Each structure stands twice: as C-alpha cells, then as structure tokens.
Amino acid sequence: MHPIVQQLQPSTDQWPAITARGRDVVMTAGAGSGKTRTLVARMLSLLAEETPLRKIVAITFTSKAAREMRNRLRREIHRYLDQPGIALDERARWDVIYSELDAARIGTIHSLCAEILRNHPAEALLDPRFTVLDEAKASLLLEDTVQETVGWAADDAAAVAIFVLLTPTTLQDTLRMLLRNRLKADTLLEHDWWEAWEEPLRELEQLARTFAARNDVDLEITALQDLRHDGSLAQAMSAQDKLAPRINALLQQWDDLRTALAVGDDGQANKILADLRSNMPGNVGSAKNWPGIDPKPHVAALRNLYDTEVKPWLATDPALDRAQMAVLPQLRRLYWHARTLHDAQTRTRCA
Hints:
Helix content: 55-70%
Shape: elongated
Strand content: under 5%
Order of helices and strands: HHHEHHEHHHHHHHHHHHHH
Largest sheet: 2 strands, parallel
Number of helices: 18
CATH topology of the largest domain: Rossmann fold
Distance between the termini: 48 Å
CATH class of the largest domain: Alpha Beta
C-alpha cells in the first residue's frame, strides 16, 4: 500500500473499506470511530493508483462535513510531501493533486444535484441561473408551507374532518415529517392501500366471536362449566379455595360474552374478552379443595390460548383504526397540497 495511505495507520477493520474495488461497499460505525478517516484513506488510495481527481466524487450531507473531508485530504497530502526522499516525479504528481483540491468533487448532495441541473437546465425545465436555498431559508419555507396547509385544511369542508383525530399541532408535525421524507411519503400515500385494511380490521372487530368459536377454547370452558354444574365449584368456594372465586368470575364473564355475541354486540364482547385474562391466574388454589377434577390444568390451557390468540391484539383499538382509515384520504390530500405549494414556493424563491 502507498505510504500516503499507510501514514493514516488504518486499523485491520478499516483496510477492506479502503482497498475494496469493483463492488459496492457499505461502512457503518458509531460516532468518532474513524469513518471519515477511512473515507479519506480510500480517496488517497485511489489517487495513489493514479485515478484522476475529477473522477472521484465524495458526497456528504452538510457543507461542514464536505469542508472537513477536503481539509483532511489537504493535510495528509501536505504531510506526505513534507517527508524527505520522495522522487521528483512523485512529488510533482502530488503537488498537482494538492493544487487541484479546491476543484475536487467533494460536496453536499445539494451541490451535486445543482451541478447536474445546471448542466441540463432544458431537460429539467429550469432557469440555469437558479440558486440553492440555505438550510435556514429552507426550514422557514417548510414552516410557511405547513402553516398555510393547516390553515387551508381548517377551511376545507372535507379536510376539516382530520381535526377529529389530529390536533393542529400534531397535524403540523405529521406534515413536516412527510415533506422531509418525500420518497417514503409518496410510497405510503400514493395508492388507496388502506382499503386492504378493511378485512383484517373486520377480523379484529370479531376477535371475541372468533376466539369463542375455537374448539380448543370450548373444550377448556366446558370442563370448567362442568365444575359449576356438578357442585365442585360450590364446594371449593366453601373451602375458601383461592382459585374458586376466579373461576366463578371467569364463567360469569364467559356467559356475558356469549350473550353479547348472541345479540350481535361484538364491541361489548371484545370489551369483556379484554378483561377475561385477569381471572386466569397461575399457580393458585389447591387440588384437595376440588372433589372432582383439578381445574388448574384447564385454566392454564385456557390462559395459554388467550395469550397466543388474543393478547397480541389487545393494544389495537378497532374504533381508532376506523377513525384513522376515515381521515387517511384527507391526509393524502393535505400532503399533496403541501407538496405542490412547497414546490411552487421553492421555485419562486430559487429563480
């Protein structure tokens, strides 16, 4: 490896990222771990292989990072040229590279895009004299767009429905997030994909009906009901068995759930289902207090079924999901209104 790269003293883990050629390389590491140094070493290794400086493009997210990378390259080349014993042709070549660093393609994604657009203004339908907004002005423009869009929504007969679910502040935050992540937002809001939400939502709303219809659930509930019918539950209650009142409450809840389902009140049945787990305790009660079968295995089996089939869904609120479904088309309208407005204002400011 060329001495100009060796002087950076790359670690064993950094060498592959520096020397890899002919394929994509992804490097991930925490802050301060040497990512920029590795990138500088990679650029120097390409230059050492006589790759022309103008054929190397380094893109950063901020102007500060671009300046830092350019300055690091300058420092490393200067440090290398300060060493004695460098051949004249070698010194001359690196002197030229050093003198061309100001013109090196090291900059932000914005500057790269601006260069491409200026080279092809006709294809981009742009005035080649356009300017690029700085971060402060861009933030103000985004804020103006968000505020104006929320104001427009408040006066729109259809869009105003979104305020039932979102406060003005929350809506502003949502629009900011969508405008800052346009590629994801476009994919998310491009189609009426939420129509596919209807079927799983209907299944969620019928969760209690589905759970009650399971044969394995019916088997365990029937075993517990038999304890009530044959008097075993009453005897365990008299013996003050700790499991007995819980089973009694569980069976009453189950009766209420079945009644709600019989009259078509799936919402009430789901509410009862959500409370059912509290009466399925673990290691509670004593088998000696039950003259018939020991109910604990049946309670445990029912608890396992509940935890597998019901518990994962309890954090989901079908009513809230339906409210979200109702306003999603309006959120899409607001996003596209904001995007169109933002693009128009940006073109005006940058022209």
